[in-house]
Amino acid sequence: MSRSNVRKAIIPAAGMGTRFLPATKASPKEMLPLVDKPLIQYAVEEAVASGIEDIIVVTGRGKRAIEDHFDRSVELEENLKGNGKAQLLSQMRHISNLANFCYVRQPEALGLGHAVLCAQRLIGDEPFAVILGDEIIDAQVPGLAQLIHTYKRRNGAVLGVQEVPHQEVNRYGIVSPGKLATGLHRVLDVVEKPSPSDAPSNLAVIGRYVLPPEVFPILRKTRPGKNGEIQLTDALKELARAAPMYALEIQGQRYDAGDKLGFLIATVEFALKNPALGSEFTDYLHARMTPQKGQRRSRAHKA
Asked: Quick check: pTM over 0.85?
């Protein structure tokens, strides 16, 4: 197996989803529907479209709905078959055939670095991808595929980045870049959630990584940081000192669906693009934003 072949992806899904409480009290955040598909399915479909064959989902307690979603439901399939809903039946079967799924439990919420480490035995001595499922990237060429292409050419870890407003850098891991070409940088350092005055750039890591297996021994030695969590960023800093690491500016529209406002924005944008709903939803939004005769537009609806 060539070390440039990226066949496996890790999707961390063990978080408690506290930003969406109470909706996530009994339902995984990853299963929140973005129009007609759960968030995690968008991540899986991006991975598969990028050439990934094996998907390792790192789960925690109360996450069985994720496993059930990507498993077959014989009763549902029989019901759809008996009611002549062939197209819907085909869609349901397609979900369970997207990839080879493996599930690993993260016993405690000990951070992204620890979640990646939980999947080490299933990765083995291969390069692999990490996808954060609440970062949705709408792109002609899948975001992860862009990173894999760069990994094959450069043979070094690749982080997916995009520019963010300078005042928002304290929400992200920020790279210190050395520009190599348009949209491609050598990573000199990675700083976790710096203040705007201390940030080395406004290039934020946006939940897409292609990493070599050499990151695992570094993660094992990484000490817990903020909130007692093992930060992937700390291991990446160490890896960047030992071997070339690259930051690729992903081409595409990114939505932070792990945030309530970002989730609502993503819902609107994907609904507008939906072939079955887009036209009617567009009409609704136009009507909603147009004041009726004799009515004043409320303050919230002013442009």
From this structure: yes
Q: Which secondary structure element, helix H or strand E, spans residue 3, and what is its range?
A: none
> Strand 245-249 relative to strand 157-163: parallel, antiparallel, unpaired?
parallel
Phi, psi (deg, nearest 5) at residue 38: -70, 155
Least confident of 14-18, 68-72, 87-91, 114-118: 14-18
Cα–Cα dist 151/230, whole Å: 25
CB 102 within 8 A of CB 122: yes
Alpha helices by DSSP H, the chain: 39-49, 64-69, 74-82, 86-96, 112-118, 120-123, 143-154, 215-221, 232-242, 260-273, 278-289
Pair of tokens at residue 301 = 């609806």
CB atoms within 10 A of CB 269: 16
Three-class secondary structure of residue 118 per DSSP: helix
How is residue 298 annotated by DSSP?
A: P
Q: What is the pLDDT of residues 40-64, one digit of tens each?
A: 999 999 999 999 999 999 998 888 9
